[in-house]
């Protein structure tokens, strides 16, 4: 009996000990979870002002992940994704951020993850993904009450839209940031986005004191990244306006501090601007040093504007010191980077238009579905009424649905057709006059900013009126299309080719010298004259006369290039046609362009 009593007491003591251990373990786990959450919040607060401390906190809290609640674990993943984006580990960052953006229980945290994803996709040139995530963020934003999350989202939206040329929308978001800054935030970040949008839109004529005040506020509040970004824009503005010493004064004193921040992308912007500024002052050693740093600091295997500028400066430095082989090597790298730059600009604009059209189409589909659901609801209500009356209403509503669907499809087709008609010549498929002028002025504006020459070729088909009078307009149209096809095969992807009217055409050649333009025009002339006009009339031979104008003589104003090229074209006509003439100051006719009917 005593043995059984001892065993019962022993079992009871063991159970009580196990309960005590469990309570102690639970208390320890709760304490660890609370400590981890507090460390995550502290890391979030210092990530912009103390990046090294922020990284250490993430390393310390990572072993506690299993003890965190879902909200804290999601926030830890977001901060790890934010850090990976900062240091250029894009694949790792994308996985972490997409998981939070798509599954996190907190809408504010999802918006913050989406904002960082937009930044990541923009930096890595995945513009369609960036604009899709922007639309997702815009849809989610009205449900978010966290003013800081909204503030960050507005900043990323402004930055992305500015990079795609949507400057009005970018400025609107930046102004909203300034007006609705959350407690503890200043106008620093909103002013940085406003400055960049206005500079990229060429709307700045001087550095307003409000921007310098905003830089000082950024420094005071510890927003080092935004202060450095504003200085990068101010330095670039001075350089664009031929003030290299002002650009150096704006950037050089802060360059070493930026390097300590371990922000390679922004440091490359500083170095590229400093390299160009020192080159403008003939300080070749400093220009080479900063250009090499800009190239080395750019994201590996990806195009960046600092890489393009760095190669350009290195090419010009080696050319000035007479190192021909090194200059040639750097020039090849610069040309590849420059082509990627032009392609990147087009990709941003195209991605915005594509995603915007997808959003419009999706809204139309949703509206159609809503109308369909409404029709079904009415149909169910009508089923309770008399059978004959119900059948009549169903028939009417069915016709309405068909009409709505037909209208949506018709509007969609009309929209696409009008977009094509607004930009393309209906007969030849190349740029019409308005689109040619728009594209050419954009290329010339870039050429003026980057000091890269361009040439304009103006040509029309000889005796084209006789072709129409003799063979008819159908054959004339075939001649025009045949000539355009021949020219397309001889032109480059970056050339702007348009039909100005009738049988008159123009080609703008970016980054082209007069000698190269003359050779290109001669190639086009030979190609046209060597090809039969139409398959149905192989005996019909068509030639063309060419006039060439260069920005070296005419400047970067499209109207003057057209006038000078037109004068050269008419000299070619008067000299017997089927030839190429270069334009000069003597080719400006008395009357405005165009001066007479071609033929």
Automatic annotation (TrEMBL):
PROSITE patterns for this protein: GGDEF
Signal peptide per UniProt: 1-24
A Pfam family it matches: GGDEF
Source taxonomy: Bacteria, Pseudomonadati, Pseudomonadota, Gammaproteobacteria, Lysobacterales
Reactions accelerated catalytically: 2 GTP = 3',3'-c-di-GMP + 2 diphosphate
Species this chain originates from: Luteibacter pinisoli
UniProt name for this protein: diguanylate cyclase
Enzyme class name: transferase
Ranges for domain GGDEF: 452-585
Alphabetized InterPro entries for the sequence: Diguanylate_Cyclase (IPR050469), GGDEF_dom (IPR000160), Nucleotide_cyclase (IPR029787), Rev_trsase/Diguanyl_cyclase (IPR043128), TPR-like_helical_dom_sf (IPR011990)
GO molecular function: diguanylate cyclase activity
């Amino acid at each position: 009996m005593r043995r059984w009593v001892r065993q019962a007491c022993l079992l009871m003591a063991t159970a009580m000990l196990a309960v005590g251990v469990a309570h102690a373990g639970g208390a320890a786990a709760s304490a660890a979870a609370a400590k981890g959450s507090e460390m995550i919040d502290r890391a979030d607060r210092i990530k912009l002002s103390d990046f090294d401390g922020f990284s250490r906190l993430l390393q310390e809290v990572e072993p506690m992940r299993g003890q965190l609640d879902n909200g804290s674990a999601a926030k830890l993943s977001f901060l790890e994704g934010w850090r990976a984006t900062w240091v250029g580990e894009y694949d790792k960052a994308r996985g972490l951020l997409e998981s939070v953006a798509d599954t996190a229980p907190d809408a504010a945290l999802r918006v913050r993850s989406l904002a960082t994803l937009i930044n990541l996709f923009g930096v890595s040139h995945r513009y369609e993904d960036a604009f899709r995530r922007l639309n997702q963020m815009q849809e989610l934003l009205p449900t978010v009450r966290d003013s800081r999350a909204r503030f960050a989202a507005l900043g990323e939206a402004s930055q992305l839209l500015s990079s795609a040329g949507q400057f009005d929308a970018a400025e609107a978001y930046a102004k909203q940031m300034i007006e609705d800054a959350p407690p503890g935030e200043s106008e620093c970040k909103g002013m940085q986005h406003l400055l960049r949008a206005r500079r990229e839109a060429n709307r700045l004529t001087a550095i307003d004191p409000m921007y310098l005040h905003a830089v000082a506020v950024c420094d005071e509040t510890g927003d080092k990244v935004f202060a450095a970004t504003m200085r990068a824009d101010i330095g670039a503005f001075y350089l664009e306006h031929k003030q290299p010493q002002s650009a150096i004064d704006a950037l050089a004193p802060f360059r070493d501090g930026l390097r300590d921040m371990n922000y390679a992308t922004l440091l490359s912007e500083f170095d590229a601007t400093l390299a160009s500024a020192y080159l403008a002052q003939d300080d070749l050693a400093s220009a080479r040093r900063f250009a090499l740093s800009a190239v080395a600091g750019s994201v590996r295997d990806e195009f960046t504007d600092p890489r393009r500028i760095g190669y350009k400066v290195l090419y010009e430095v080696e050319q000035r010191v007479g190192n021909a082989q090194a200059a040639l090597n750097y020039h090849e790298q610069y040309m590849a980077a420059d082509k990627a730059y032009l392609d990147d600009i087009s990709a941003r604009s195209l991605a915005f238009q594509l995603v915007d059209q997808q959003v419009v189409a999706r809204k139309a589909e949703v509206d159609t579905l809503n109308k369909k659901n409404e029709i079904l609801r009415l149909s169910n209500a009508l089923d309770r009424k008399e059978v004959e009356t119900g059948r009549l209403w169903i028939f009417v509503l069915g016709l309405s649905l068909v009409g709505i669907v037909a209208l949506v499809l018709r509007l969609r087709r009309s929209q696409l057709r009008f977009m094509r008609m607004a930009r393309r010549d209906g007969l030849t498929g190349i740029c019409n006059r308005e689109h040619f002028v728009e594209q050419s002025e954009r290329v010339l504006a870039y050429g003026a900013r980057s000091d890269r020459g361009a040439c304009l070729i103006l040509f029309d088909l000889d005796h084209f009126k006789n072709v129409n009078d003799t063979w008819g307009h159908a054959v004339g149209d075939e001649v025009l299309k045949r000539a355009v096809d021949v020219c397309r095969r001889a032109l480059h992807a970056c050339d702007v080719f348009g039909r100005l009217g009738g049988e008159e055409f123009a080609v703008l050649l970016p980054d082209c010298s007069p000698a190269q333009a003359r050779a290109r025009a001669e190639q086009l002339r030979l190609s046209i004259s060597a090809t039969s006009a139409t398959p149905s009339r192989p005996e019909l031979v068509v030639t063309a006369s060419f006039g060439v104008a260069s920005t070296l003589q005419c400047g970067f104003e499209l109207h003057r290039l057209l006038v000078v090229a037109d004068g050269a074209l008419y000299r070619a006509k008067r000299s017997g046609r089927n030839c190429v003439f270069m334009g000069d100051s003597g080719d400006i006719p008395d009357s405005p362009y165009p001066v007479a009917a071609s033929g």
